[in-house]
Amino acid sequence: MMNNTSKKPFNLPPGTTITGKWHGASYTIMKELGYGANGIVYLVRDGQGYQALKMSDNNVTITSEVNVLKAFSKLQGTPLGPVLMDVDDWEYRGKKIPFYTMEYIQGPTLLSFVQGKGFSWTGVLVAQLLADLERIHQAGWVFGDLKPENLIVTGAPHRIRCIDVGGTTIQGRAIKEFTEFFDRGYWIGGSRRAEPSYDLFAVGMILINLAYPNRFPKRENGQLQQLKMAVEGTDSLRKYRGTIFGALEGTFSSAQEMREDL
Hints:
By secondary structure, the protein is an alpha+beta fold. It folds into two domains: 17-103, Phosphorylase Kinase, domain 1 (2-Layer Sandwich), CATH 3.30.200.20; 110-261, Orthogonal Bundle (Transferase(Phosphotransferase), domain 1). 34% of the residues lie in helices and 23% in strands. A hairpin with a 2-residue loop joins strand 2 and strand 3 (39-46). Helix 5 (196-211) crosses helix 8. It is elongated, with a radius of gyration of 19 Å.
């Protein structure tokens, strides 16, 4: 759900009970789902079932992500991110820790799903992703930290869902979070301004990652040409070469245009 490169902000064992100060709901930690620089996510259980609970020592982080989930909930169609359930504070060892709970989306990551079911699923799932991104972009947001780890495949019927909205940014601002392999600034020196083309570059890199599950390092002076050679280097990507090149070169004006090309 989140990257695991940062020091854990909290280390709470299973069985810990978290009770909201304002709403009074109680949640029992079942296990840790992941953590990153901006917080930690636990699988929790309350009287209704399982949820995912994110807490952070940074109130701005929680507020920002809650606002994103609220904005996503207003969009028509299948929910893009997890459904927001509760927002509260937990008093722990004399500190007030903000948290929110959300729908627990179960299923394999996009990469795991494709590895298990076959590369033939790639086209339909990426087309779904681009349809979702079109709705996000039309609402004035950019997902930002797009990568297979942040994409879960539910089903059946199989459906791609976005999780970990921590990188979602209002268009026009600087991207808040990114992962180097999927970042156009890392590969081609492009802008990290939050705009649709930033997400579309990442979709192109997701397609590459699905064919190269272990990814690959950037060579010295490795830029667009290295990525194009990777696409040409495997049969599974050649049929998508035009779409991927367009995403990497920034030629698509919208996610819908890229979806139609795909």
